[in-house]
Model the fold of this input.
Amino acid sequence: MAETAGPPAAGAPAWLAGHEPAPLGRRFGALLADWLLCVLVSAFFADPRTSGWPPVAVLLVANTLFVGLFGQTPGMYVTRLRCVSFADGGAIGLLRGLLRAALLVLVVPTLIMDGLRRGLHDRVAGSIVLLVRPASAEAAGSR
Done:
C-alpha cells in the first residue's frame, strides 16, 4: 500500500511500520490539483473570479466524498497519496472525512504538523496521509 520506511515513530500504531508519511511537496501538489478541479467544476454554476465561496464549497464536498469513501481525492491519486485512519489504516468514512475537509478549507490547521507530518486536520479526524507504492513496486517487493 505505502512505501517502506523504518519503524513507526513513538506513539504511532504498530501497523504504521513500513509506511511512509506523505511529504509536504506531494501533499501541496495534490491540494493544488484538487483546487484547480474545484475551480473548474464551480465555474459551471458560479463565476469563481467574482465569488470565492463556490470553489471552497466544491472542495469541501469533493474532499469529504473522495477521502471519506475512497481514501484519496483525484489530486491524491495523481500524486500517489492515500488518507487512512491513524488507528487501523482503514477508511476514515464520511463523518471524519467531512471534519477533515472542514478543517482543511480553513488552511491554518493544515500548517500545524506533528512528527508524522499529520496536520491538525488529520489529528482531529484521526487520519494520516501516506505515500502509495506503485503496483510494480508491490509486485517486486513480494518476490
About this structure: The chain has a mean pLDDT of 88.
